[in-house]
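Homework help board

Subject: predicted structure for assignment chain

Our instructor gave us this sequence and asked us to write out the predicted structure in token form, then describe one feature. I got the tokens but I'm not sure how to describe them. Can anyone check?
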Amino acid sequence: MSQTLQNRHDFVFLFDVENGNPNGDPDAGNMPRIDPETSHGLVTDVCLKRKVRNYVQTAKTDETGYQIYIREKAVLSTQRGAAYETPEVKGEKKKGNQIELARAFMCKNYFDIRTFGAVMSTKENNAGQVRGPVQLTFAKSISPIIHLDTTITRMAVETEKEAEKQDGDNRTMGKKFVVPYGLYRAEGFVSAPLAEQTGFTEDDLELLFQALIGMFDLDHSAARGKMTARGLVVFRHDSKLGNAQAQTLFDRVKVSVTATDGEPIRSFNQYEVSVDGDNLPDGVSLDVKL
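My token output:
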């Protein structure tokens, strides 16, 4: 692996959805998440991290150091058990030292742990807690969204008993919730001091950015419609602690609506994205990756 990350980074990530549900809310019948006061759409940080994990799991299959801890059908205590099978942990008598060695093993071998962190301080195979260097905000839509409640028809039933109830008509009705169009903005932070603690490297950072740009292309489904990464703007600091407040940098990325008043927004072309790269604070550089 490359050198442990030495510089703070802040970034803005833009993505959109067309005729899909970017992040259903199980507390609301899986309808698209929405701020009830403003009608702006929301996508949780957990949802975005899930897609990053899926991308890395696919792109780095069987590569050492890029396993995924939080993955479908994983038994977490069993995965941590691998750390307790290493000679280093087995040979250590003090419980506190065992936990530290197990924590280091998990950071080294699992990309999502050294990136996003994890709580592994449970009773079985305790590997402590890891505070990840990469954090994401909830994504929020630039404009208020609407969701369509669409009725769909299934031309078959699951069991013979259902067929009898339908009296030969095997059609059943269901619901599908979609957002006709929404452009979302998330913001992210990468801490160099925390990267030193987990072993998060320059290569890991580049892989993270690759995942953000490419993850929707590996995640197509009927429910999510068409989702596309539209912008990734990265601010790199010359120091570990940073050379400017993140918000002053984020304010340089502006998204404005070009649609006429009353015109429904249905495409990315109805927005204009601008990035102010002039007179950046000393020690900050700009990289527009997408």
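Reply (TA_rk): Your tokens look well-formed. For the description, you could write something like this. The mean pLDDT is 93. That's the kind of observation they're looking for.
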